[in-house]
């Protein structure tokens, strides 16, 4: 079983429902170990679009990184994701952030995620559920990376997660 952290984002339609349906679909590919709070976040890259709703989940799965990527893309397609504008609006976006301590780079998949340490909308929810987890390349905890982050994009907690 691999421990995987996935970043989820949505800014089209019923964003909370989109995230909930993505989590439900991911639960069929493994066991959900943890789910972060929901965060309202300012767009990065293409800024002329609605704000996002983001969260991070921890998934225990038997899927390989490549099979997990196929599964996340299938879930995105099933939930109406259309890839029209790079970093543009989307019903759902699912990114593989971390996969155990794996470091890999292929034309289709980079783990850890390339932007992980530079995106507050990922680091806030990730550090919430795994504050002492270390980035396998930078060898710093997620909390340390968050504290060092210079990014000033707004990330506001919308709904706190429920304690298990």
What does this structure look like?
This protein is α+β, with helices and mostly antiparallel strands. It has a single domain, classed as Alpha-Beta Plaits (2-Layer Sandwich), CATH 3.30.70.560. The chain contains 4 helices and 8 strands, in the order E-H-E-E-E-H-E-E-E-H-H-E. The chain has helices spanning 15-27, 65-78, 120-129, 142-148; strands at residues 2-10, 31-35, 38-41, 52-61, 93-99, 104-105, 110-111, 155-159. Strands 1, 2, 3, 4, 5 and 8 form a 6-stranded antiparallel β-sheet that branches. A two-stranded antiparallel sheet has the order 6-7. Strand 6 (104-105) and strand 7 form a beta hairpin. The chain is globular, with a radius of gyration of 15 Å.
Topology:
Layout: E1 2-10, H1 15-27, E2 31-35, E3 38-41, E4 52-61, H2 65-78, E5 93-99, E6 104-105, E7 110-111, H3 120-129, H4 142-148, E8 155-159
Antiparallel strand pairs: 1-4, 1-5, 2-4, 3-4, 3-8, 6-7
Helix pairs in contact: 3-4
Task: Label the structural class.
Answer: alpha+beta
Ranges where pLDDT stays below 50 over 5 or more residues in a row are none
> Total number of helical segments?
4
Number of domains: 1
The level-1 CATH class: Alpha Beta
**Largest beta-sheet characterization:** 6 strands, antiparallel
The overall pLDDT, averaged over residues, is 92
Would you report the number of β strands? 8
What is the general shape?
Answer: globular
Please write the string of helix (H) and strand (E) elements. EHEEEHEEEHHE
């Amino acid at each position: 079983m691999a421990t995987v952290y996935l970043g989820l984002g949505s800014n089209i339609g019923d964003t909370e429902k989109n995230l909930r349906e993505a989590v439900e679909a991911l639960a069929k590919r493994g066991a959900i170990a943890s789910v972060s709070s929901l965060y309202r976040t300012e767009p990065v890259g293409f800024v002329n679009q609605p704000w996002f709703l983001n969260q991070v989940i921890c998934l225990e799965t038997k899927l390989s990184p490549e099979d997990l990527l196929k599964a996340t893309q299938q879930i995105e397609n099933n939930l109406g994701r259309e890839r029209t504008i790079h970093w543009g609006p989307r019903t759902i976006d699912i990114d593989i952030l971390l996969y155990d301590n794996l470091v890999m780079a292929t034309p289709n998949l980079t783990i850890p995620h390339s932007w992980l340490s530079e995106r507050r909308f990922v680091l806030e929810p990730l550090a919430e559920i795994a504050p002492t987890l270390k980035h396998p390349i930078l060898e710093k905890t997620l909390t340390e990376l968050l504290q060092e982050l210079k990014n000033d994009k707004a990330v506001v907690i919308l709904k706190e997660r429920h304690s298990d």
